Amino acid sequence: MCGRFTLKSPRRIKLGHFSGPDLQPLLPRYNIAPSQTVLALADFGNGRELSPLTWGLIPSWSNESKGFINARSETVETKPAFSESFQRRRCLIPADGFFEWKRTGKVKQPFYFQLNDESVFAFAGLWDRWTRNGVSINSCAIITTKANELLHPVHDRMPVILHPQLHDVWLDPRAARTELMELLSPFPASEMKSHPVSSAVNHTENDSAELVVRMDAEPGITPSLF
User: Fold this and answer.
1) pLDDT by residue (tens digit) across 25-77?
2) 91: which of 51, 54, 57, 204 lies 20 to 30 Å off by Cα?
3) What is the pTM of this model?
């Protein structure tokens, strides 16, 4: 799954040929969590734009505002909560790293994963618009797939990361289902790196650069991935 991620350098967002509003006011974020606001690139009705969404997709037909933070690639086109969004409402969610936890006994050691060059990338996402009693919420979910070789020692799932040349395909409303499904594969482990970080990331109120600093494993935990 993907339950926390970072966008430390929002001014470095470059998604395809998109040139949107000034990103200068955006603050670095080191511990983005479910139910919080995230940025997403999609066509929300007026052409492609970067817009704030709630992380936790609420299907438009749902009677309650309960959201799904992740959508499994294996069932994304058939599960009722995601099938229509997969066909019509795909988005890109910018990030520059994410966290995953390795369980050792009763304790979990958090690890931080990023690209080798630490650049901004894009998760494959879905979005939907939920409206009830005059309240409208635009929300999103991150698609996950099986883990690559780097992640597998920590967790069996990972978020789908799309190479830049695939962004337009993912957002293209005319893209074929088979073409889209082929994109939902593990990102190459050779293009990523990881290190253990402090368990301070477990608490959503913490949001500072210290959360992504490499540190020795906490007592009782072995940090090595191999």
Assistant:
1) 788 999 999 999 999 999 998 888 898 999 999 999 999 888 999 999 999 99
2) 204
3) 0.92
Is residue 39, in this structure, part of any structural domain at all? Answer: yes
Per-residue confidence at 22, pLDDT binned at 50, 70, 90? Answer: low
Domain with 116 in it: 5-212
Catalytic entry in 49, 77, 84, 100: 100
Strands (E), the chain: 5-7, 29-32, 37-43, 48-55, 70-72, 90-95, 97-104, 107-115, 121-132, 135-146, 157-159, 161-162, 192-196
Residue 218 falls within a domain, yes or no? no
**Annotated catalytic residue 140:** no
Residue 223 falls inside a structural domain: no
- The reply to whether 91 belongs to the active site is no
How many other C-beta atoms are found inside a 10 Å radius of the C-beta of residue 79?
A: 14
